[in-house]
Amino acid sequence: MAFDHKKYRPYHPINKTDRRWPNATIEHSPKWCSVDLRDGNQALIDPMTVDQKDRLFSLLVEVGFKEIEVGFPAASQTDFDFVRSLIEQNKIPDDVTIQVLTQARHDLIERTYEALKGVKQAVVHLYNSTSPTQREKVFKLDKQGIVDIAVNGAKTVKALAAGYPETHWTFQYSPESFSATEPEFAVEICNAVLAVWQPTPEQPAIINLPSTVEMTTPNVFADQIEYMHENFAYRDSVILSVHTHNDRGCAVAAAELAILAGAQRVEGTLLGNGERTGNMDIVTMAMNLYSQGIDPTLDLSGVSKIVQTIQDCTQLPVHPRHPYVGELVYTAFSGSHQDAINKCLQVQHESDHWDVAYLPIDPTDVGRSYQEVVRINSQSGKGGVAFVLEQIYGFKLPRWMQIALSKVVQKRAEGVGKEISVDEIYRVFTETFIHSAGKILNYDIHQQHDKQRLDATIETPHGVTTIVGIGNGPLEAFLNALMAHDSTHYEISDYQEHAMGAGSKADAAAYIAIKCNDQNGYGVAIQQDSVLASLQACYNAVVQAKQVQDEEQLQAS
Ligand SMILES: CC(=O)SCCNC(=O)CCNC(=O)[C@H](O)C(C)(C)COP(=O)(O)OP(=O)(O)OC[C@H]1O[C@@H](n2cnc3c(N)ncnc32)[C@H](O)[C@@H]1OP(=O)(O)O
Ligand SMILES: CC(C)C(=O)C(=O)O
Q1: Computed over its alpha carbons, how large is the radius of gyration of the chain?
Q2: Which ligand 1 atom is nearest residue 108's CA?
Q3: What is residue 118's DSSP assignment?
């Protein structure tokens, strides 16, 4: 049997009964370190060129990263040249620290320092792998042999740094494959490295704990981090960092729980590019904080630029449902979602905390628009259609008008079997309820005793007619005039109007629901003159009711 789960074994959680992280909350942003230019780069089909790296570095600085891992300079000439170009062309702002990765090998560490010559400040990031699989199968060494690699590397890092006194150095150590390493051994090897570096609160070192391959639920990772936080030496002189990967799809969750467990720093990439399923997605985690009212310390308002730059530099597409940045993440197609969004947005005031159903953040915060929030297909309802017409064209449809329009739009959407564009909705709306086969050219109102007499001239495809009626107001007079003209009984069942926009010159939009014998009809009109708007809407409603009646008769015959 090829698909056999018995091939695998469960990961054994660590035996921790005093865990504190489940009761903790995240109260402020961690320190961020972008590893887009290193871990992100080493996962690409075609690694970035110096120009692409340059462009991405500028974006990272613009977004507000203060620590950026810019490469593995001993690994390739491109990485070496890129680091040199940043330093020689003075491209590193004073408040930004670049970081570079190296294996614990003397020649590679030497080359790493050559690449960094002249830099104001930098983090030298040393790593070696520590898990049983790596020890036994890759390095073929016992625990002491692995500790020796780390300690020798740490000594070299420290010794060579002394040759570059003009630079402010920070040392970072990662026990690669930490999440698969016995916690006691992870503490032992980190302490051995720290004993070489002797960090102080003024000159701290970074211990970076990676889930090189994510292999457990995030709570187990949190236990591991809490264990380290409680057990390694020099705790007040160490910045505890995490570097999670997304093999199980939980890299962000694991980093968040790690913060609860005592981590102070998080490494990741902007949209989660990285080895295999990727690194921790910093945009997602930072926006998660933002959506909880916590300053993420990164400016992610220019999401389109971030997405475009990442795509151009990595040649990787961004999924339309990627958290916070995907093309479709602020869009609702389904009717009840649209209805709820519409209702919430109507009562959402600028001074209030954001509280809109189905929208965890305000899309405009990241440069997205409300226009894209609601899109219409056959799954949509009246609230969505009304939202679109209000947002884009300024119509505030009364509920009964929404119901009438939604039926027509739904029929059209089912007919075409796909999304209906905003322009198409507007066309359906105007064709059905506004462009009737008759235009009121002018009207005249005279007071006659306690009533009003209305003379209206209407242009129809059959010619121009003038009708006359008397009523308590212009609308009633108009209906009486129509009833005098044909044998139908007309009765207004609903009426509403509003100004389109602000100011005294704003057009009036009138909405009328009418009963013609037993048939409902709906009409809309927009005119400068609000009386004309209501008369025209009334006439449009009559025409619409008759059209529906004719269609029904045709279908029945
Ligand atoms: C989890 C991570 O993301 S770690 C970062 C991984 N990133 C990369 O590897 C990208 C850049 N790397 C490279 O370009 C290359 O690996 C280089 C240039 C650094 C080294 O290349 P090579 O010298 O040809 O070595 P290669 O990668 O084939 O093999 C690794 C060797 O280094 C050893 N090694 C691997 N990692 C480490 C380490 N962190 N510290 C010390 N030795 C190490 C291996 O045991 C192996 O030793 P062996 O030659 O005695 O068998
Ligand atoms: C070098 C380390 C931090 C790494 O990239 C990993 O383990 O994923």
Answers
A1: 34
A2: 19
A3: T
Angle at alpha carbon of residue 524, lines to 454 and 430, rounded to 5°: 135
Q: What is the mean pLDDT of residues 310-334?
A: 95
* Average confidence (pLDDT) over 189-209: 98
Give pLDDT, residue 44.
97
275 Cα nearest atom in ligand 2: 8
**Nearest ligand, measured from the Cα of 71:** 1
CA distance 323 to 361: 11
Which pTM does this prediction carry? 0.89
- Which amino acid would we find at residue 56? L
How is residue 45 written in tokens? Answer: 């089909």
- CB-ligand 1 contact for 192 (6 Å cutoff): no
341 near 356, Cβ under 8 Å?
yes
Of residues 399, 397, 462, 461, the one with CA closest to residue 430? 397
Distance of alpha carbon 287 from alpha carbon 296, whole angstroms: 7
CB 69 less than 6 A from any atom of ligand 1: no
Q: In order of start, what are the domains of the chain with their CATH numbers?
A: 30-314 (3.20.20.70), 331-372 (1.10.287.1400), 382-434 (1.10.1220.20), 439-556 (3.30.160.270)
Q: pLDDT digit string (tens) for 383-417?
A: 889 988 998 899 999 999 999 999 999 999 889 98
Q: Which long-range contacts (CB under 8 A, 24 or more apart) does 17-21 make?
A: 19/222, 19/223, 19/226, 19/261, 20/226, 20/261, 21/222, 21/223, 21/225, 21/226, 21/257, 21/260, 21/261, 21/262
The pLDDT assigned to 556 comes to 81
The DSSP symbol for 465 reads: E
Ligand minimally distant from the alpha carbon of residue 103:
1
pLDDT given for residue 1 in this prediction = 67
Q: What digits encode the pLDDT tens for the residues 213-265?
A: 999 999 999 999 999 999 999 999 999 999 999 999 999 999 999 999 999 99
- Both tokens of residue 352? 């209030």
For a substitution probing ligand 2, which of 34, 127, 245 has the most ligand atoms within 8 Å of its CB?
127
Q: What is the ipTM of this complex?
A: 0.97
**Residue 212 CB–ligand 1 contact under 6 Å:** yes
129 CB burial (10 A radius; 0-12, 13-18, 19+): buried
**Residue located via tokens 């929404």:** 402
